[in-house]
Amino acid sequence: VPISNIRNFSIIAHIDHGKSTLADKLLQVTGTVPQREMKEQFLDNMDLERERGITIKLQAARMRYVFENKPYCLNLIDTPGHVDFSYEVSRSLAACEGALLVVDASQGVEAQTLANVYLALDNNLEIIPVLNKIDLPGAEPDRVIKEIEEVIGLDCSNAILCSAKEGIGIMDILNAIVARIPPPPDTSKRPLRALIFDSYYDPYRGVIVYFRVVDGTIKKGDRVFFMASGKVGYLSASIRTVADARVGDTITHHFRKADNSLPGYEEATPMVFCGLFPVDADQFAELRDALEKLQLNDAALKFEPETSSAMGFGFRCGFLGLLHMEIVQERLEREYNLSLITTAPSVVYKVNCVNGDTVECSNPSLLPEPGRRKSIEEPVVKIEMLTPKDYIGPLMELAQERRGQFKEMKFITEIRASLTYELPLAEMVGDFFDQLKSRSKGYASMEYTVIGYRESDLTKLDIQINGECVEPLATIVHRDKAYSVGRALTLKLKELIPRQMFKIPIQACLGAKVIASESLSAIRKDVLAKCYGGDITRKKKLLKKQAEGKKRMKSIGKVDVPQEAFMAVLKLE
Ligand code: GDP
Ligand code: MG
């Protein structure tokens, strides 16, 4: 098809507003996916994505559509909805001229609706408002349309009402894409410049690259050149590793190179780090192989070897956020059959040392000694929470408990408010999102961006079990919170660590000073003896249960510490 008949668009929405369902319907209606291959949520093709109902990596699909007897080529780029992955959203938007703004007509504008719309406006995209889920009895499209107009200032006079689930309004959407989204500009005479916006490794076909041709033309058999990595390849094949076809790089022709590459993208920086250790030391090499394989498709995943006297050999890994961390961990266990211990995630601190150096520290146990450091800076985020007005109080309380600085409150409609705070990223890692949801009965939503580093009065809290300092349990806390965290953490550990044959002291320390102390009493020797009364199956059951529990434990000194204990610090009340 000629350029004037091409449309590049993406779908933006708050999570669960129906983006993937709508994408599936569009593919189905245009016959892009043969009926028998149609699985629910075709674009979410990683098993985990389908199970969790979220889109993790962006995906692209090309559709053919005939409008007024002319053939069109519609390129859909799906975007993830979770805050951890917002850098993937900006990438896909930069490859489009238009976007469908999908808003759940029974809910209304949410935090990520706003954030994504602003990204789309920044990219000068034509936005088509789509009110989804009008089949629901609770749908109020008129109210939500008013909300979009008031809050975003977007003209909704020709918003489309649809039900992605029931297939209502789908043709209207396809027609609007053709009629309202402009075609890409014709730059076919210029030297080729194509921007890579995604790539992945396919074990059978090598590296598959998604790119947007910005200037010039490209055809099968062309010999191409990757401007940043300097690698040459043919379009359908011969790209060996994903590193050669980096997201953000520009493809040009080998024989007619463009002068300058395209601006590209900011690299996704990992925000939280944790240690990953195999429960069984023999699995270290397998863990490294698995991480290398995952990294081929996930440039945001970072890792380097970490050794700890308590945990043995493992890796310090960097992730975009907690969801990203959970997903990687789950894939390692599920797809690579590994049994892992994960230590509590930490943000990256900047430590200004007495000698003038600044060191980055993402591992609390490696924090320079108090004598060596002058000050510590921590990453700070700006967080926007959208909530029905009934929950303003509880959410303000939450933000304050987490060292938040109040910035602004706006009523975006009569009944809904936006609360803006600045707070330390470390206070958000953990259960902040869960708390936001539970304190607002599920009605509030949030969005955050990292805004920089700020000096703060931080200190290291050590945990000693049975007189031994357990490095992976060390955590960095604000001095004002050290005592309460110490108390809550020792209590929690006492609950989580199984009793052993001897009494075990559990202590929280600031330097050499013990600030909280608990003790785990010894197990009674006759636990098994009880079963000797003849019931052999009961005894076997008990032993089996103990063995299963063992799988996810690490022996530290003489004490078995279960996985949950390493995460305890995240969920203190
Ligand atoms: P995404 O997170 O934006 O991709 O949302 P999904 O497409 O995964 O949809 C979230 C949930 O809403 C799923 O349970 C869908 O079945 C449901 N859903 C999507 N569209 C509709 C619709 O038009 N009507 C109704 N009733 N449910 C819908
Ligand atoms: Mg989805």
Would you kindly provide a written description of the structure presented here, covering whatever features stand out?
The chain is an alpha+beta fold. About 25% of the residues lie in helices and about 35% in strands. The strands form six sheets. The chain has a six-stranded mixed beta sheet with strand order 2-3-1-4-5-6, sandwiched between helices. The mean pLDDT is about 85. The site of guanosine-5'-diphosphate (GDP) has 18 residues, from helix 1. One of its GO terms (cellular component) is mitochondrial matrix.
List the helices and strands and how they pair.
Layout: E1 6-13, H1 19-29, H2 47-52, E2 59-67, E3 70-78, H3 86-93, E4 98-104, H4 111-122, E5 126-132, H5 141-152, E6 160-161, H6 170-180, E7 193-202, E8 206-215, E9 223-226, E10 232-234, E11 250-253, E12 272-278, H7 284-296, E13 302-308, E14 312-319, H8 322-335, E15 340-342, E16 349-353, E17 358-361, E18 373-388, H9 392-401, E19 405-411, E20 416-424, H10 425-428, H11 432-439, E21 445-456, E22 458-465, E23 468-469, E24 475-478, H12 482-496, E25 504-510, E26 513-520, H13 536-551, E27 553-556, E28 559-562, H14 563-567
Parallel strand pairs: 1-3, 1-4, 4-5, 5-6
Antiparallel strand pairs: 2-3, 7-8, 7-11, 9-10, 9-11, 12-14, 12-15, 13-14, 16-17, 16-18, 18-20, 18-21, 19-20, 22-23, 22-24, 22-25, 25-26, 27-28
The structure holds guanosine-5'-diphosphate and magnesium ion (MG).
Summarize the main sheet: 6 strands, mixed
Listed once per kind, the bound small molecules are: guanosine-5'-diphosphate, magnesium ion
Query: Oligomer, anyone?
Result: single chain
Residues in helix, %: 25-40%
Number of helices: 14
Radius of gyration, rounded? 27 Å
Mean pLDDT: 83
Total count of strands: 28
Uncertain stretches of 5 or more adjacent residues: none
Strand order within the widest sheet?
A: 2-3-1-4-5-6
- Proportion of residues in extended strands: 25-35%
Shape: globular
Helices and strands: which structural class? Answer: alpha+beta
What is the CA-CA span between the terminal residues? 61 Å
Main location: mitochondrion
Catalytic activity: GTP + H2O = GDP + phosphate + H(+)
Enzyme class: hydrolase
Domain Tr-type G: 4-185
